[in-house]
Write a structure and sequence with these properties.
4 helices, coiled coil, mainly alpha, MYO5B protein, elongated
Length: about 150
Amino acid sequence: PFLRLLEAQLQDERKEHEEELEALKNQVDAMKEELEKQQQAFLQSLQLSPEAQVEFGLQQEMTRLTNENLDLKELLEKLEKNERKLKKQLKIYIKKVQDFEASQVAVPAERRQHERNMQVAVQRKEKDFQGMLEYYKEDEPLLIRNLIT
């Protein structure tokens, strides 16, 4: 059983490693393509006149900024959608809490008093008393009355 567990863990790690390696290879390929595009653009710009080089550079920068802007708009839309979803969930939870609090207020006072008495009784049971009872002299009539009742 132990060897099987180790073998399963090794296979899981191998699978994770292969997936990570594949993702890295894809990333390297995408970077190679981007580098080739940049090299081609650079070679093209070298063949142009200085004015055309400036215009070409501006055009490239505008394209890059436009793509970046589109990516940011997409991200903003996702975040706004998530915000709306979270606000709906928050409203639901607030409603649940208010309903719960209203149900607690509706509990009769007698039941709450009974619950308090039960808590006090439990607390008293947890204490371990031995020996004589200690009390103040002025509490003696109250103590006697409670002992009798």
